[in-house]
């Protein structure tokens, strides 16, 4: 005989929001012959009581809808806040010590990466500020400066000729709109920068056109100002006559508001007004430097216009010397400062000397090289000028005196102390090549630059060339070999090429004589 029993317990019926405290216990006892059902109401234990209904009440729905919805910006802000707090905790001494104890290798690597990132960021930010927010841009009004930053970016960092030219043109238009003086250093500087950029992208003809326009404008202003001085239109203070009365009339207030603005301007420190003589000096310097640059461009292999190159270089040197003579006789004018530095004057003379050398007028190039050497302050570049002198003396042919005369403005640089025979010219060339080598070799420490090393190699080659011309083949062969050895060490291919050509000429000459 088998008997089975089934028991169940469920909370008593009632409102679902009320906590049930009693339950209905049902027991079913079943046998093959009979079934018995027993029911009883019992008290529920605390853990059996129902605490929440499965169906939300209207009050619960109301409380749920009243919760504020978080926006994406708030979510990002809170996430960043939590991240920063975690970062601060992680970078605190306690956080670093705890992290190092748990995983020293990873912690050390993370610290090194963090330091590297900070240093790299600091260097990058500083380079960015020095490139795009330096004193050169701060001289311009902000709209012009922003346009120039874009132009420089598309010039040097992400080359795009069309965009660069567009922004340069826009900068010039903005300079006109804001009323900048077209002869100010800022506006002329943009035009010259455009010329250098055009030369950089191998548009030499366009670069020459831009520089010719700069030179023409500067020379025209200087000529008009000098004519005004001759006509008595410039007073002793370097102002046009009548400017004072015009300034007084323009300074009268037209309204109370303008009067207050003028009082504020008077309270602020006024910038000194540029005199006409100072402006003439500034524009004449700009014209001379532009003329020298044009001389170099016209002599470039992409242009090859030697006559124009010569004319510009001669004008630059003659104008420099003419201004020196005027200041020596008349004295400085109001606002004038020191004239050309020795380096600038020597550079223009050296450029003209190289032009005479290209034209095979060595007797005119030599005095200019002497003047450039006297004015040069760079030890390494002095060796370069000495090499130019050695080459000029070595190539100087005999000529009839007076067949090639310098221009009137340059005659004071020339004298009659030149050698008279071909042998004297060659010996002078040999001495200057030797001097160039010894001088470049003796430069030490910070004064020594790669220019010194190349000057040493060129001097050895010149030394060998002149020695071969003087009939000293052994000395020439020795100097050529030294030049080849030195040039190979410094990877100076031009020096190796010239010395090897000299050796081949020596070999050919020896075979011919044999």
TrEMBL record:
Task: Look up the domain of life of the source.
Answer: Eukaryota
GO MF terms here are: misfolded protein binding
Residue ranges of the TM segments: 106-129
**Region Disordered, annotated ranges:** 245-269
> What InterPro entries does the entry give?
Mrg3-like, TPR-like_helical_dom_sf, TPR_rpt
| GO terms classed as biological process | protein quality control for misfolded or incompletely synthesized proteins
Q: Which CDD domains match?
A: Mgr3-like
Q: Which UniProt keywords apply?
A: Membrane, Transmembrane, Transmembrane helix
KW Kinase (keyword) present: no
Assigned GO CC terms: i-AAA complex
PANTHER family xref list: MITOCHONDRIAL INNER MEMBRANE I-AAA PROTEASE SUPERCOMPLEX SUBUNIT MGR3-RELATED
Protein name as catalogued: TPR domain-containing protein
